[in-house]
Amino acid sequence: MSNLARKLQQQKITHTQQRQTPQPRIKKLSKVTPLEKFLYFMFIITCCFIGTKIVKTQATIYDTNAHIQQMNNDISLQKQQNQQLKMKIDELSTYSRIWEKAKELGLKLDNKNVKLTEGN
């Protein structure tokens, strides 16, 4: 019984000793100063601003390229229309067609009134 009593007494002593030695509380010191926090905040704000500016610039570039492409398409259509009109002019300005129109309007070919000019 003495062994048992000693074991119980030793256990009580160890428990009481652990309670008697409270560990000192360690304060966590902030390694980041308020100035550094401000600088980090400003850095984040600057990154957001620059990112927004880049996206806005890319959107403007895309819009401008779309406008240029539309203008190129319009130019191509206008060139095609001009080509068709030139072909129609060539078709309508043939000598035989002009002569037929002149006959319809009552004009006659008089070789005495024709004057020849020499070109360079």
Automatic annotation (TrEMBL):
Keywords: Cell cycle, Cell division, Cell membrane, Membrane, Transmembrane, Transmembrane helix
Membrane topology reported for the UniProt record: Single-pass type II membrane protein
Low complexity bias locations: 10-24
Intracellular or extracellular location(s): Cell membrane
Coiled coil location: none
Segments for region (Disordered): 1-25
TM region(s), chain numbering: 38-55
Main location: membrane
Domain of life (superkingdom): Bacteria
One GO CC annotation: cell division site
GO aspect biological process, one term: FtsZ-dependent cytokinesis
Entries under HAMAP family matching the protein: FtsL (MF_00910)
Entry's family note: Belongs to the FtsL family.
Biological role: Essential cell division protein.
Protein name, per record: Cell division protein FtsL
Organism listed in the record: Gottfriedia endophytica
Protein's gene: ftsL
